[in-house]
């Protein structure tokens, strides 16, 4: 699994160049795109197309070649294969057959976007591309609104305005970043609240290039009432221990865990006394 640059060709690793030279075959999404990369580094290895359209047909051939002792490198058009790109089913099939899968790490828009965002990196969720249809996108966003983590999305220029709009509506007031054309000539990183970014990238305006959107975790608020916290704790206690229920509600409410632990204990004892 060999990562390739997401723009700047200098981001390829020495190891990736060596591996792409040494393997028997390179499986790639598009031979024209990968061909350019190989030409730049003077790599002459043969290529085979492996993508979402032909995967079911090519996978057995790739597995047979590995079985016959050949080594195969999987690359995507850019960045790390499997990350919103083909490869998962191939890796799963290899793992299933006990074949060795070796990562050759390198560039990925996910990490490049995250490290430029200036948002918390201790807990991160990668959400990839949101559904293109608005109804499904809004559904995904209402689910993601519950996640207490920085969230990284991939997006395309034409959809950026609409997506930011839906994010502002469903994720609430949060800091966010639009990172465009990372590692390329017109690299641009714009920070603001989701609302501010909506007005920067008006719906329908012609935004070009490749985009990562990074959204900060929900802002901690004191907005949950005592009654709401009790309800959340009671719900959690139906399936979790006192400790885990307190932890879970601390995540969503932003209230101190210790305080919630004491309250969960009281609720649990009262519940047991009632029975
Ligand atoms: N596997 C790739 C990776 O590891 O980053 C991602 C492939 S996905 C099909 C392509 C998306 O990644 C683009 O639509 C964009 O959201 C993001 N992307 C790729 N290159 C980028 C770049 N140079 N700057 C910003 N986003 C980029």
Structure explained in plain terms:
By secondary structure, this protein is α/β, with parallel strands linked by helices. The chain has 3 domains: 9-96, Cobalt-precorrin-4 Transmethylase, domain 1; 109-215, Methyltransferase, Cobalt-precorrin-4 Transmethylase, Domain 2 (2-Layer Sandwich); 226-274. 44% of the residues lie in helices and 15% in strands. The chain is built from 11 helices and 8 strands. It has helices at 14-22, 31-40, 55-67, 88-96, 109-116, 134-144, 160-171, 194-200, 226-237, 242-253, 257-274; strands spanning 25-28, 47-49, 72-74, 124-129, 150-156, 175-180, 188-193, 210-215. It has a 5-stranded mixed sheet, with helices on both faces. A hairpin with a 7-residue loop joins strand 6 (175-180) and strand 7 (188-193). Helix 6 crosses helix 7 (160-171), helix 7 (160-171) runs antiparallel to helix 8 and helix 9 (226-237) packs across helix 10 (242-253). The protein is globular, with a radius of gyration of 23 Å. The termini are far apart. The relative contact order is 0.10. The mean pLDDT is 94. The site of S-adenosylmethionine has 24 residues, from helix 5, strand 5, strand 6 and strand 8.
């Amino acid at each position: 699994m060999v990562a390739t640059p997401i723009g700047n060709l200098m981001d390829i690793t020495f190891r990736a160049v060596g591996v792409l030279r040494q393997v028997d075959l390179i499986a790639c999404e598009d031979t024209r795109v990968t061909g350019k990369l190989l030409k730049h580094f003077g790599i002459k290895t043969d290529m085979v197309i492996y993508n979402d359209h032909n995967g079911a047909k090519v996978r057995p051939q790739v597995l047979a070649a590995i079985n016959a002792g050949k080594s195969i490198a999987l690359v995507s058009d850019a960045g790390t294969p499997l990350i919103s790109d083909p490869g998962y089913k191939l890796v799963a099939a290899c793992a299933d057959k006990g074949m060795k899968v070796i990562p050759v790490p390198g560039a990925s828009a996910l990490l490049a976007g995250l490290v430029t965002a200036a948002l918390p990196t201790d807990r991160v969720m990668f959400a990839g591309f949101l559904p293109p249809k608005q109804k499904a996108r809004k559904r995904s966003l209402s689910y993601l609104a519950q996640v207490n983590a920085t969230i990284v999305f991939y997006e395309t220029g034409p959809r950026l305005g609409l997506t930011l709009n839906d994010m502002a509506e469903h994720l609430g007031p949060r800091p966010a970043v639009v990172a465009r054309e990372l590692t390329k000539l017109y690299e641009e990183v714009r920070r603001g609240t989701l609302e501010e970014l909506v007005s920067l990238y008006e719906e329908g305006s012609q935004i070009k290039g490749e985009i990562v959107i990074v959204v900060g975790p929900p802002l901690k608020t004191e907005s949950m009432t005592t009654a709401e916290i009790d309800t959340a704790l009671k719900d959690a206690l139906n399936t979790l221990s006192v400790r885990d229920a307190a932890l879970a509600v601390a995540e969503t409410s932003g209230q101190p865990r210790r305080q919630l632990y004491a309250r969960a204990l009281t609720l649990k004892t009262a519940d047991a006394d009632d029975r």
